[in-house]
Each structure stands twice: as structure tokens, then as C-alpha cells.
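Hi support team,

I've been running sequence recovery on a batch of backbones for a student project. Most finish fine, but this one hangs at about 90% for roughly twenty minutes before it completes. I'm not sure whether the input is malformed or the queue is just slow. I've pasted the C-alpha cells below so you can try to reproduce it. Let me know if you need the job ID as well.

Thanks,
M.K.
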């Protein structure tokens, strides 16, 4: 049902560098690119993450209460991806740690303010 999750960007070149580096941690690569948008997917998923310059010409902004959840392979992987995101200019929205029994997570905002959670569940 879902083909992609689309996020707005105010600086597509900067966002491309950020996501090219970050999404390789999940095995994703660019599968589509033009002057207004870029799409990344993994070989085994029909759903991707896309970035675009807003069509209406207004600044891109993140939604309050909106978040993209990414699946981590292990608690260490969650921490590594979180640290990589912060090293590339993301901001902390919640450091890595156990959120409830069996759930390890971390939260950050990309350079455009879009919120991500990385989750590993023990089950």
C-alpha cells in the first residue's frame, strides 16, 4: 500500500549527502533522482524514503508529532546509527536507551528538522 515516505528539504544537496551516508546503514541506495527529489530504497523493500523541494515554493517544515521509524538490527546498531546521524548534523531528540522491556530506541532530527526513531525489539 505504501510506496514511499516523502520528506521536505530546504537544501536538497545537503540532504542528499546526509541520507546517502545514513541510509547505507540499512542497505538502501538511491533509485531515483531529479532536480527536485531523490528516492532511496533497499533491494528487499517496496517502501522507500524520498526527499523533495516543496512544490509550492514554501519552506519545508517538519510536522509536530510526525516521526519516521527505522528498524535497527541490534541495540549497538541503533546507537551507531544515532551517533552517525548526530556526527552529520542531526540533533538529539532522545539518546539511545531502553524505552521499555525489550525495546531499545534512539531519536534524532535530520538537518531539515524531520524526526526519526530507530528501534530494536528483542522479539
Amino acid at each position: 500500500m505504501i510506496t514511499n515516505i516523502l520528506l521536505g528539504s530546504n537544501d536538497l544537496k545537503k540532504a542528499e549527502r546526509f541520507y546517502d551516508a545514513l541510509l547505507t546503514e540499512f542497505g538502501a541506495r538511491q533509485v531515483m533522482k531529479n532536480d527536485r527529489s531523490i528516492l532511496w530504497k533497499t533491494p528487499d523493500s517496496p517502501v522507500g524514503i524520498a526527499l523533495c523541494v516543496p512544490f509550492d515554493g514554501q519552506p519545508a517544515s517538519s510536522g509536530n508529532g510526525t516521526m519516521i521509524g527505522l528498524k535497527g538490527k541490534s541495540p549497538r546498531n541503533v546507537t551507531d546509527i544515532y551517533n552517525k546521524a548526530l556526527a552529520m548534523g542531526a540533533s538529539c531528540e532522545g539518546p539511545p536507551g531502553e524505552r521499555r522491556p525489550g525495546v531499545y530506541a534512539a531519536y534524532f532530527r535530520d538537518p531539515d528538522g524531520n524526526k526519526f526513531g530507530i528501534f530494536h525489539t528483542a522479539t
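--
Follow-up from support: It reproduced on our side and the slowdown came from queue contention, not your input. The chain has a mean pLDDT of 94. No action needed from you.
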